[in-house]
Amino acid sequence: MSTLPDIEVIHDPEDLRYLIRVGETRHEDNEVVLRYHMRDASTIDFTSTFTPPSLRGQGLARKVVEHALDAAEARGLTIIPTCWYVEKIVKERHAAAHQP
Fold first, then answer.
1. Does the residue 28 lie in any domain?
2. Among 5, 30, 37, 64, which is 20 to 30 Å from 22 by CA?
3. pLDDT by residue for the chain (100 residues), tens digit each?
4. Which domain holds residue 55?
């Protein structure tokens, strides 16, 4: 997996998503997307991730998810990882935090 320090994660609250856009144009073929919805004022449900086939294997989805989880935690939100990929990362973070 490559290191991606200069890739910007964008929060788009109007469309309830976090994303990385690769390239200048807005098109689903160049956007890695994490969708969510607010169950209530203090609970966020991360519902799905999508990475176009041409962008897979570069760590972009992980970067979006990590950023969104950090933002949710900073706001004190309860996180519901409905998306399997978000759930995987939540479990990895929990395990890492509880290593001896």
1. yes
2. 37
3. 444 557 899 999 999 999 999 877 676 788 999 999 999 999 999 999 999 999 999 999 999 999 999 999 999 999 999 999 999 999 999 888 887 7
4. 10-97
